[in-house]
Design goal:
Blueprint (H helix, E strand, L loop, with lengths): L1 H8 L1 E7 L7 E5 L12 E6 L4 E5 L5 E5 L6 E6 L6 E6 L3 E6 L9 E3 L7 E6 L5 E6 L8 E5 H5 L4 H4 E5 L7 E6 L6 E6 L3 E6 L5 H4 E6 L4 E7 L5 E6 L4 E5 L10 E5 L16 E8 L4 E7 L5 E7 L2 E8 L7 E7 L4 E6 L4 E6 L4 E2 L9 H10 L1 H12 L1
Parallel strand pairs: 1-29
Antiparallel strand pairs: 1-28, 2-3, 3-4, 4-5, 6-7, 7-8, 8-9, 10-11, 11-12, 12-13, 14-15, 15-16, 16-17, 18-19, 19-20, 20-21, 22-23, 23-24, 24-25, 26-27, 27-28
């Protein structure tokens, strides 16, 4: 832990990319496959202008930009089995796959379900076989939609690709979907209904597959599998609650909850009396064996926290980087640094003892499309809260 704390304590800006386009950086993804592939240097980013960008993870320079989505691109993931395939999920009702070796704007695969479906979360199983997307509420239904990725590769029709849907487990927008990193059939989903569901897809029907339900009493914003055996689940909520559950206790009488707070911002004393405004997300650092949670202030300041059964511990604060809310981060185990993106449009790389190199420039910080994304992010949560207060 000492070496990890030393690394974070000495983090400073190594590179700053300031693109001409002032769109928000909404999500980041790094290739998960180790080895000597040249595409390992890639960093994927989704932006509020509906574009998908490819950057060098080392220099941050943009290599390529893909256009095709017509709605907000809320998530980006590299294929678990290939560094050359990048998947993106969008509110336009599609999940798209891009071959990063091929220039141009055409996706190599497009996954759809009903035209009325608008997605707000997605993920890919660790075997690259199954893709799952969570929909916004459609009528009385909120759906988990599943596709068989192999059928697409084998030239299957759009009808063949769709494996089916789960429709009974959530009653509002499904805002987070997360496959287990090593168990292909285990899936966690969270929604604005306050429920986090754990499924074992190998058990068949939705009722049989639903292993357990955890209640976070709020709208789920982020899920992360964590722990030495990856049998714990971190949940963050839109009103900054934090919950840590131990799912290895499912077959015992022990409570699943390891740690829980409806507003975990109040648990973190910051230097100079500063207050934590929000949580960006979390990440399990496998080599170090610690759960990282990143929080921030709307002025752009970042705070790196360690999360454990005893709560949250401040490891370091990062200043002088972003000038607005940070939307996403990735810890780069290869380069040994932190990558962050946010509403100022900047993409930053932080490394221990680094000196800043500015990669590009930009003139403005806001865009109309960015403001629409920001407003939409909390619409359903506010509505859900109003319903609870009225009840």
């Amino acid at each position: 832990m000492d070496s990890l704390e030393d690394t974070f304590r000495t983090l400073s800006i190594a590179r700053r990319l300031q693109p001409d386009d002032p769109s928000y950086v909404l999500d980041l993804a790094l290739p998960p496959v180790p080895g000597g592939s040249s595409s390992l240097d890639l960093l994927g980013a989704s932006c509020s202008n509906h574009s998908v960008r490819l950057h060098s993870r080392e220099t941050l320079r943009m290599w390529r930009e893909y256009q095709g989505h017509t709605g907000a691109v809320f998530g980006v993931r590299f294929s678990p089995s290939s560094n050359d395939l990048l998947y993106t999920g969008s509110a336009d009702g599609t999940v798209r796959c891009w071959d990063v070796r091929t220039p141009g704007s055409a996706a190599t695969r497009v996954f759809r379900s009903d035209p009325a479906h608008s997605y707000c979360s997605f993920d890919i199983s660790c075997t690259d076989r199954v893709i799952c997307a969570g929909t916004e509420q459609v009528g009385e239904d909120s759906l988990l939609v599943f596709w068989d990725n192999r059928m697409v590769r084998d030239g299957g029709t759009e009808k063949d690709r769709l494996l089916g849907v789960y429709s009974e487990s959530h009653s509002d927008d499904i805002t987070a979907v997360r496959f287990h990193p090593s168990q292909a059939d285990r899936l966690a989903s969270g929604a604005t209904d306050g429920l986090v569901n754990i499924f074992d897809l190998s058990l068949g029907t939705e009722d049989d597959a639903l292993v357990t339900t955890c209640n976070c009493d709020s709208s789920t914003s982020f899920l992360c599998w964590t722990g030495k055996n990856l049998d714990q689940l971190l949940c963050l909520s839109h009103d900054e609650g934090l919950h840590l559950w131990d799912l290895s206790r499912l077959d015992s009488d022990e409570p699943l909850t390891i740690f829980s707070s409806p507003d975990a911002r109040t648990l973190v004393p910051l230097p100079e009396g500063a207050l934590l405004d929000y949580f960006v997300g979390g990440a399990w650092l496998e080599e170090a064996g610690h759960l990282l949670v990143v929080g921030g202030c709307h002025s752009g300041e970042l705070h790196i926290l360690e999360c454990s059964a005893s709560g949250l511990k401040l490891m370091t604060s990062l200043r002088g980087g972003h000038s607005a809310t940070v939307r996403c981060f990735q810890w780069d185990p290869v380069g040994g640094g932190l990558l962050t993106g946010g509403e100022d449009g900047d993409l930053l790389q932080w490394k221990a003892g680094a000196e800043e190199i500015i990669v590009g420039k930009k003139d403005t910080f806001k865009s109309a499309s960015s403001m629409q994304i920001k407003a939409k992010a909390h619409r359903k949560h506010a509505t859900n809260r109003d319903k609870k207060q009225t009840a």
